[in-house]
Structure to design on (415 residues):
């Protein structure tokens, strides 16, 4: 199987890789534009329907809990049936979920808003299937840069999404989620027309889809994979504070509304685009993937701590830029390291399990962040996120002993 996997992987300059990278970029971009449209506005939607910060946390937690359960299942099926049908299914279901979101906003029905986010979480296998399609056709040396292309699509989507959401919200709360649903349909159409299948029938398992424990049991580096899964949890735990508490903090301290919050999220997306689309390949070669991951976790911790302390616009934006830089480093590197620790025949399951580990954090984190905000004030969620990021940096350093990750260009171990 390993030899077959190597034979399937073309060089980084091949037409197939360039085509898949371009289509995955567009697919993730359209999906994340929709995500970026609604997420910065979500606290304001909940408030308009009579909810609190705690309600925002529970709503986000419901999305993530269903994502936690569903993503590894979709990953298993992508290993068995191919990446393309899973991506199509996820995008189409997301369009339906966003339609329900728009209806909930129009009718001011908080229960329907919960239904829409639960459906979105249960069918959100798009990102892990896209990552698996890249892992199918890359080598260890080219994977971090190729995963960076996915990150660039995420970054560009998060630039335009909040800006579109902030502008469209002026004409009706129902319009931003409706626009997000239309973009998801457009992405599904693009995949249907042009996306090649990167996981051919000859490489698929014909047995019953395996349990998520198979990813650990059949991993050539199980300890490394466990560390990466724990890192996913800690990093996404830190990130949930942004989704729950940032808009509320900015509104309480600075009087910001949806437009100003959208601009900050657009800044985060811009940093992600620059780092993951341009810099991640050269920097991972120069510094080493694990060292760059640790640096990203430290920057994320510094940014979250800065947000917790900021009382004026400039320090708040500067702190957001720090944490955006950290996330720009971390996200593609975690995907690359998870795929390197995976069995070649279980890329989809392993990357789905990694996303599920992040989903567990996004289940626990929003509820905890909402509770901390309500009980201890606006700084508390960000201080807790900074502590989680520091823990991630310490654990990331342990990966230097596990033999995964591109090393420094000098060839010396990045230790």
């Amino acid at each position: 199987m390993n030899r077959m996997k190597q034979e399937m992987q073309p060089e980084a300059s091949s037409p197939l890789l360039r085509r898949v990278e371009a289509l995955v970029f567009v697919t993730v971009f359209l999906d994340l534009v929709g995500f970026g449209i609604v997420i910065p506005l979500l606290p304001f939607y909940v408030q308009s329907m009579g909810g609190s910060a705690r309600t925002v946390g529970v709503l986000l937690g419901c999305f993530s809990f269903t994502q936690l359960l569903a993503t590894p299942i979709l990953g298993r099926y992508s290993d068995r049936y191919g990446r393309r049908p899973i991506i199509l299914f996820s995008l189409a279901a997301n369009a339906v979920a966003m339609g329900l979101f728009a209806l909930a906003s129009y009718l001011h029905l908080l229960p329907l808003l919960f239904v829409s986010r639960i459906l979105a979480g249960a069918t959100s296998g798009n990102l892990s299937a896209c990552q698996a399609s890249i892992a199918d056709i890359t080598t260890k040396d080219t994977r971090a840069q190729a995963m960076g292309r996915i990150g660039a699509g995420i970054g560009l989507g998060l630039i335009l999404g909040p800006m579109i959401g902030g502008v469209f919200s002026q004409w009706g709360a129902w319009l931003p989620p409706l626009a997000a649903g239309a973009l998801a349909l457009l992405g599904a159409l693009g995949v249907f027309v042009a996306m090649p299948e990167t996981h051919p029938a000859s490489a698929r398992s014909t047995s019953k889809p395996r349990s998520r424990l198979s990813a650990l049991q059949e991993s050539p580096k199980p300890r490394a994979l466990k560390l990466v899964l724990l890192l996913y949890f800690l990093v996404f735990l830190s990130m949930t504070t942004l989704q729950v508490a940032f808009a509320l903090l900015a509104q309480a301290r600075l009087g910001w509304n949806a437009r100003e919050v959208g601009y900050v999220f657009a800044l985060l997306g811009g940093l992600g685009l620059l780092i993951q689309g341009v810099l991640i390949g050269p920097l991972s070669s120069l510094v080493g993937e694990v060292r760059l991951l640790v640096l990203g976790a430290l920057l994320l911790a510094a940014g979250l701590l800065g947000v917790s302390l900021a009382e004026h616009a400039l320090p708040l934006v500067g702190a957001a830029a720090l944490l955006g830089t950290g996330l720009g480093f971390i996200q593609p590197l975690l995907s690359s390291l998870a795929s390197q620790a995976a069995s070649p025949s279980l890329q989809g399951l392993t990357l789905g399990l990694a996303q599920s580990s992040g989903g567990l954090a996004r289940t626990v984190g929003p509820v905890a962040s909402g509770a901390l905000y309500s009980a201890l004030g606006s700084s508390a969620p960000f201080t807790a996120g900074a502590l989680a990021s520091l823990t991630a940096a310490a654990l990331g350093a342990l990966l230097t002993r596990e033999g995964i990750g591109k090393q420094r260009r000098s060839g010396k171990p990045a230790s």
Notes: The domain at 15-198+211-401 is CATH 1.20.1250.20 (Growth Hormone; Chain: A;). The chain has 16 helices and no strands.
